[in-house]
Design a protein that fits this description.
Among the domains are: about 90 residues, no CATH class; about 60 residues, no CATH class. It contains 16 helices and no strands. Helix 13 packs across helix 14, helix 14 runs antiparallel to helix 15 and helix 15 packs antiparallel against helix 16.
Length: about 300
């Protein structure tokens, strides 16, 4: 990137320096000369509301210098939207995809992607690109948030391909909480899934099957607890029967602290099961999760006082 002051293409523009734009900043940031000059020309074009090919090139230069500059991204999208020759699909595949793979944690990139995909009106190719992103970081918050946005925006609830995707990731890492969270989103975030007793029963079996693979995996237990708390047609007795196998309340091996926690919550609501609730919480406080002993003691006090706390 050469100096804009030496470019005939920009000879008609009078740059606006940061000092002119903000005469007395509280905290002066030490920008490079290259970045400061590019921004001075962007301020001038924004002041005149110029939306042109050269502005598009200017925003690209600035983004490559500082990909977190939110205002530049917004002005770039405005410029793209105003230019009849601009291709939003090319912007997505040629410019944004490589940049995303280099800057994995950049929120501005993903917001720009939402604007582009929404304007294009199609999510074609997005699943394939996200595979590349997850290959770099399977638990990237920004990527998962974007994928959930795709589900909401394009009404992909209960999508077979989205569920297959979560099954693949959970199969690779049963403790991938992001994949579990996305599975819940696909199945139930539309508000209808939890009233479908058939779907809830299927997901209950799915969660219990994964717990059998890793009994101390909190993600699967949380999924199961969500189904128990909100799902239609869930038999609490079936969940209790399953959890008992991992809790060791009969003197056997405690295989999961999450099973103890769940049973303490269920038994704590039944005066006839108070003794078992107390036993579960004492095991957690004294032996299996002493680092959180104050919390378990609080729960224990609630049970003893007749108030269920979960």
């Amino acid at each position: 990137m050469g100096k804009y002051a030496d470019s005939p293409e920009w000879a008609d523009v009078v740059p606006i320096s940061q000092q002119e734009h903000m005469p007395a900043p509280l905290a002066q940031i030490a920008y490079t000369d290259e970045y400061a000059e590019a921004m001075s020309y962007l301020r001038a074009t924004m002041a005149s509301n110029e939306l042109s090919e050269r502005v598009l090139a200017l925003t690209e230069d600035i983004i490559r210098l500082n990909p977190s500059h939110y205002t530049v991204w917004l002005y770039r999208f405005r410029t793209l939207s105003a230019l009849p020759t601009a291709s939003l699909t090319t912007e997505l595949t040629t410019f944004l995809n490589p940049l995303s793979l280099r800057h994995l944690k950049n929120y501005q990139i993903w917001h720009h992607r939402q604007l582009l995909v929404s304007a294009i009106g199609s999510y074609e190719g997005e699943a394939e690109f996200l595979v590349d992103m997850f290959a770099k970081d399977a638990k990237n918050y920004h990527v998962w948030s974007y994928r959930q946005w795709l589900v909401r925006h394009f009404k992909l609830f209960h999508s077979a391909s989205e569920l297959a995707f979560t099954e693949q990731l959970i199969g690779e890492d049963v403790r991938n909480n992001s994949a579990w969270n996305h599975r819940w989103h696909v199945n139930f975030a539309d508000g209808d899934g939890l009233s479908d007793s058939g779907l809830v029963a299927k997901e209950l079996e799915y969660a219990m099957g994964k717990i059998e693979l890793a009994a101390q995996n909190e993600s699967a237990w949380n999924y199961l607890r969500g189904l128990l708390a909100k799902g239609a047609g869930v038999e609490e007795s079936k969940v209790v029967q399953f959890a008992v196998k991992y809790a060791g309340l009969d003197g056997g091996e405690v295989k999961s602290t999450h099973a103890l926690d769940l049973l303490a919550s269920i038994y704590g609501k039944d005066p006839a099961k108070k003794e078992s609730a107390v036993q579960a919480l004492e095991l957690l406080a004294d032996k299996y999760d002493p680092i959180r002993a104050p919390y378990w003691r609080y729960r224990l006090a609630m049970v003893n006082s007749g108030v269920a706390a979960s």
